[in-house]
Design a protein that fits this description.
Elements: H1 29-44, E1 50-55, E2 58-69, E3 72-82, H2 84-99
Antiparallel strand pairs: 1-2, 2-3
Length: 100
């Protein structure tokens, strides 16, 4: 029996809820364009391991890192966190400094 992945951000990352463990995420068009492409860029060393995604009124910080089992590279770790408050604060500071 295959297990389905549970996504805490159901409404903002709906495509993650369609994945099954050990399934090919690249077959999902949305994930391929929004996430897999970022992993490929990270793997090639062409981008940072952090990017942001706006969904509605929320801003998510998405971090990519290597996943190891001992010394063996097994895949990628994707960490998604709500960064809305930090980004709003940064925006506020930028607007404030522009007014000075």
């Amino acid at each position: 029996m295959e297990k389905k992945i549970q996504c805490l951000f159901y409404h903002d990352f709906y495509s993650l809820n369609e994945l099954w463990i050990d399934s090919n995420a690249a077959k999902n068009e949305t994930l391929n364009s929004e996430l897999i492409s970022k992993i490929i860029e990270f793997k090639a060393g062409n981008s940072k391991n952090i990017f942001y995604k706006e969904a509605g009124e929320k801003i998510y910080k998405i971090s990519i890192d290597y996943l190891y089992s001992g010394k063996c590279h097994q895949g990628y770790l994707i960490y998604i966190e709500d960064d809305t408050q930090n980004q709003k604060y940064i925006s506020f500071l930028n607007k404030f400094s522009d007014r000075l």
